[in-house]
Amino acid sequence: MFTGLVQAVGSVAAIERRGVDARLRIDPGKLPMADVAEGDSICVNGACLTALDIGADGFAADVSRETLDHTSLGDLDRGGPVNLETSLTLQQPLGGHLVTGHVDGTGEVTAFEREGESWRLTVRAPDELARYIARKGSICVDGVSLTVNSVAGAEFGLNIVPHTLRETIIGGYRAGTRVNLEVDIIARYLERLLLGERAAEPGGESTITLDKLRQHGFLD
Q1: pLDDT tens digits for 133-187?
Q2: pLDDT tens digit string along 1-52?
Q3: Residues 6 or more apart whose Cβ sits within 8 Å of residue 156
Q4: Which class for 131: exposed (0-12), middle (13-18), buried (19 or more C-beta within 10 A)?
Q5: DSSP letter at 6?
Q6: Which of 47, 186, 209, 218 is 20 to 30 A from 64 (CA-CA)?
Q7: If you compute the radius of gyration of the chain from its CA atoms, what whole number of angstroms results?
């Protein structure tokens, strides 16, 4: 479990292809590694990976075909920057929102424009994720906890303040950049709850609509 508050921008030191899988070597940058043990979880661009072979030069992580197929980790190149966060502890303030590191899918940056001292980031989500994204709700983009400012169909807008721009990889986004998305965990469980008894039936599908969410007080 993570907060979505990026602790450091690291870089990909090496990529080793292993058939359909891969092993990454990550230079942690300024990420505090003193308390990281073999087998601990580290969030890399929003994906929860297991830290292995920990040394002075960073850590390794095995990435399965499942992860490569459903995240943008397969797009990484040697030397490419990555957002990093170690796992949440019970003593740590929850400044972002609860992030599992289980990427739901990838979106595409459609616009990134300056607005005063901040920047306006627009992302198009896969159609199947659009129903989970609500104005003023939370979403995780490449491991960064952000507030959704606007929604238009499958596209949503985000305000990026200067601090976030400096301390994450978002400053390098361009139109067409592919990003990892994780929707708010509450939205996932809400969908299952609204299914009721049909949740136990094979092939049971969600009947969530904006009208139903408003009716139950989840939207204004």
Answers
A1: 999 999 999 999 999 999 999 999 999 999 999 999 999 999 999 999 999 988 8
A2: 899 999 999 999 999 999 999 999 999 999 999 889 999 999 999 999 999 9
A3: 122, 123, 125, 133, 139, 148, 149, 150
A4: middle
A5: -
A6: 186
A7: 18
Domain that holds residue 53: 8-86
Instruction: Kindly report the CATH number assigned to the domain that includes residue 44.
Output: 2.40.30.20
Q: Residue 210 is which amino acid?
A: L
CA distance 45 to 82: 6
Q: Is residue 62 part of a domain?
A: yes
Contacts of 93 (CB under 8 A, 6+ apart): none
Asked if the structure places residue 1 within a domain, the reply is: no
Give 63's contacts (C-beta < 8 A, 6+ positions apart).
21, 22, 23, 24, 47, 49, 73, 74
**Could you tell me if residue 34 is inside a domain?**
yes
Q: How far apart are CA 132 and CA 143, in angstroms?
A: 17
Any domain includes 174: no
- The letter for the amino acid at 126 is P
Count how many domains the chain has: 1
pTM for this one?
A: 0.87
Say if strands 41-44 and 21-27 run parallel, antiparallel, or are unpaired.
unpaired
